[in-house]
Input
Amino acid sequence: MAVILDGKKVSLDIQEELRIETKERVERGRKKPHLAAVLVGDDPASQTYVAAKVKACERVGFDSTLIKLPEITTEKELMEEIKLLNENPKIDGFIVQLPLPKHINEEKVIQAINPKKDVDGFHPQNVGRMVLGLPTFLPATPNGILEILKRYKVNTIGKHCVIIGRSHIVGLPMSILMGQNYYPGNSTVTLTHSRTKNLKEICQEADIIIIAIGKPNFLTADMVKEGVVIIDVGINRVPDETKKRGYRLEGDVDYNEVIKKSSFITPVPGGVGPMTIASLLINTLNATKLNSK
Ligand code: NAD
Output
């Protein structure tokens, strides 16, 4: 029977550890961590994610600042806001919630963030450090996946890990981290994407599958072997009139069927999503330690 990788519980465990560490830190007269989040426009999913991040800060005793800017904000105005955050000694780390409105160049914005405050780990300098295995802010979702694999002692060493999706925030960094020479990692990695041929056959060979593509029910039971470990990153809003909000959340995996063949599996919701928040908090505490040295 599959073990459910309970991201909600593990995330709350981590938050409790962070709450205790923060309390002790503040009692010793050290700086209280302060995370800022910049939200441009009114994308409903982004609003939900940012609200959850701010709420988690409150739970662990961090200060938080939410900067809400209208959809019509220009790239120049956003850059000015980032400059202020870079220079503000009270702010230890900040994130700019993606996606940004189309008229703003995301790469330019990410590159404007001070790498020492880049708690999302998206700045090229931090990505480079991650590739080389140097201390850095690991991107929140991949780091959350490593953390849940570690807490459930899932064996990754020498395993064939197939990653589906090559986004800069999930699939690509995940492929690097799972191949690195430490645990969790040391896997033999295959990075697949929309141009991959024979995806079904490749998945059937996988000991671990990490999927982040944004397509509900994409990974079906016939694509996996017995005993597979499944990490489902997808968050898809599927219309559902029986729900008050008019939709339900589903991952990229046909969960009810794939679970029957899995040894470990993350549910959606309650799997990778809460782990992403926990990693962001870990990065923020680390930024506070780094910046107040
Ligand atoms: P994305 O949307 O930027 O890119 C999708 C990727 O999927 C691309 O690399 C593409 O090549 C690949 N792809 C598309 N169709 C494919 C196919 N048929 N076969 C193989 N590969 C295919 O990716 P993203 O930003 O990583 O988001 C993916 C999903 O993960 C979304 O549902 C998103 O909401 C979710 N997500 C969840 C979290 C979390 O915290 N749980 C964090 C980030 C993203």
Observations:
- The radius of gyration is 19 Å.
